[in-house]
Amino acid sequence: MKHITTIIFSIILFSCSKNNYKLTYRKPVKGYVFSEDFNPINDVSIKYDSLDLLSPTNIKTNHKGSFVFPKIEIANTIETKRRISLLSSQLYITKEGYKKIVIELKEFEKNEKDTIYIDTLQMKKS
User: Fold this and answer.
1) Residue 93 pLDDT grade (very low, low, confident, very high; cuts 50, 70, 90)
2) What per-residue confidence (pLDDT) applies to 91?
3) Residue 15: is its pLDDT beyond 60?
4) 76 CB contacts (<8 Å, ≥6 apart)?
5) Residue 30's closest CA among 83, 96, 123, 109?
6) Cα 116 to Cα 61: distance, rounded to the nearest angstrom
7) Cα separation of 122 and 105, whole Å?
8) Which residue, among 35, 48, 29, has the nearest Cα to 99 in the 3D structure?
């Protein structure tokens, strides 16, 4: 009887416990932005085409033209999976005096596993 009670208690305990596994909401994205003459452009604004609150919106290039979007992980829930399926994978790259660039991350994501690497982007003067 004691063993049966222990087994039943264990089954109830494990079936009610939450899954602590996290899902990747946004993969990290790394890249460089240069001018037409291959000089790095500082302070270029890069953001997701998204109104979603978890996606970073204040990413800027540094003096080397480099930018990094952090990896975002959140709890594994049905709501999370729904939100991930609705995410836009477009990035907007803007800087005053230059033409806006729109990138579809899915094109870069095909061969990447954890981090999405974007080759050098060249911005043209407007």
Assistant:
1) very high
2) 92
3) no
4) 19, 21, 22, 23
5) 109
6) 16
7) 16
8) 35
User: Among residues of the chain, what percentage have pLDDT more than 90?
Assistant: 43
Phi-psi region of 35 (alpha: psi -120 to 50; beta: other; left: phi over 0): beta
pLDDT tens digits for range 39-53: 999 999 999 887 777
Average pLDDT over residues 10-24: 61
Given a contact cutoff of 8 angstroms between Cβ atoms, the answer to whether 25 and 86 are in contact is: no
Inter-residue contact 26 to 58 (CB < 8 Å): no
Contacts with 96 (C-beta within 8 Å, 6 or more apart), sequence order: none
DSSP 64-97: TSEEEEPPEEEE--HHHHHHHHT---EEEEE-TT
DSSP 15-56: HHSPP--EEEEE--EEEEEEETTS-B-SS-EEEES---TTS-
